[in-house]
Amino acid sequence: PPLGRILSLADFESLAQLVLSHKAWAYYSSSADTTSANVENARAFSRFFFNPRVMRPVRDCSPATKILGFDSSLPLFVSGAALAKLGHPLGEANITRGAHKGGIIQMVSSNASLSFAEVAAAAEPGQTLFFQLYKHTDDSLAVKRVREIESLGYKAIFLTVDALTAGKRECDVRAPWVLEDMENGPAYHVEGGPADIADDGGTAGALVGADDQNMTWEKTIPWLRSITKLPLVIKGVQCLEDAVLAAEAGCDGILISNHGGRQLDYSMPPLETLYRIRKRRPDLFDKMEIYIDGGARRGTDVVKAICLGAKAVGMGRPFLYAQSCYGADGVAKAISILDSEIVKAMKFLGAAKIEDLVPEMVERVDWQAK
Ligand code: FNR
């Protein structure tokens, strides 16, 4: 259909299933084991209801905000997801161009299918890009990577800490292919595949290489601080205790995430973790920026998290799907849909600016459990 007919992120998703190769769909959509973590990420949003305020002036309503001090037109960013070229020949550059048009920030994956220089080259002057780091076991290789992305102008590091081994994503493992030569971009053999399937034999298994499995708060954070001045966010924090440790370690932020349910099955939905942190340690929100990703698909989803104190919400799959269907225009359209949904939700809530979104505006109600 023409892009103008796309009304919601769900439309991109259904269309992506039609246009993507079997393997690409399996890789993008899959999640771990029973897929419960992924399903529950989205369902968590449906347990939170709004208490709107009326009779408040909202004609001039702005969803603009800052993330780590960088301007963003929305409290939304692109979470780094690997292998955009699987869905579209221009790959991550589509997301870069679409993000620029929509005024939001793209976090570029360590496993991007374009080089970090190619992604940077697709950016407009002044456009903000963040970098998602998988830390190599060999410190010197990690230093080299950090130097590279610093010199290319990436503005922050999101260190992923929830992917020390590959999640068991069965759809992806079953869909046959061989991933070759990441240096030159992936090449695909759709036929065949090994006779015996290893449980981490999917794309995730091929991508997880020599990631450092011995990172610690005490050692890794000071070490990273010693090699770079870029702001540091820990991606994959999943409980209150680790949020406290991240704040104590002086991190600039945490991204509460279970990797879109692709790693540990039955890991807590990020929105629920955010809610728990808000209830028990509201002071943490003043010490560092807290973001979530996983399962957010609507403007109201974003607004719920912002009410609970998140500085911004990340999305992974929706941008992969949008670029697979329509390239950069699809990404820009996805952002404009979310913009419109977020502004509507803010107006209905009586919020003219991001700071007007407060915890009292959302309530967790589990009707089923009552
Ligand atoms: C990811 N994610 C991810 N995270 C990361 O730190 N490095 C990576 O290379 C990838 N790669 C990746 C590939 C694909 C296909 C997906 C779907 C996800 C996780 C990603 O950053 C983010 O946490 C989730 O995608 C958020 O969940 P939603 O928005 O996809 O539900």
From TrEMBL:
Primary localisation category: mitochondrion
Catalysis: reaction(s): (S)-lactate + 2 Fe(III)-[cytochrome c] = 2 Fe(II)-[cytochrome c] + pyruvate + 2 H(+)
Subcellular localization: Mitochondrion intermembrane space
Entry EC number(s): 1.1.2.3
Cellular-component GO terms for this entry: mitochondrial intermembrane space
Enzyme class: oxidoreductase
Cofactor(s) needed: FMN; heme b
Gene Ontology MF, one: heme binding
Annotated FMN hydroxy acid dehydrogenase domain residues: 1-367
Keywords tagged on the record: Flavoprotein, FMN, Heme, Iron, Metal-binding, Mitochondrion, Oxidoreductase, Transit peptide, Transport
Domain of life: Eukaryota
Family: Belongs to the cytochrome b5 family. In the N-terminal section; belongs to the cytochrome b5 family.
Quaternary structure and interacting proteins, as annotated: Homotetramer.
Name of the featured protein: L-lactate dehydrogenase (cytochrome)
Natural source organism: Cylindrobasidium torrendii FP15055 ss-10
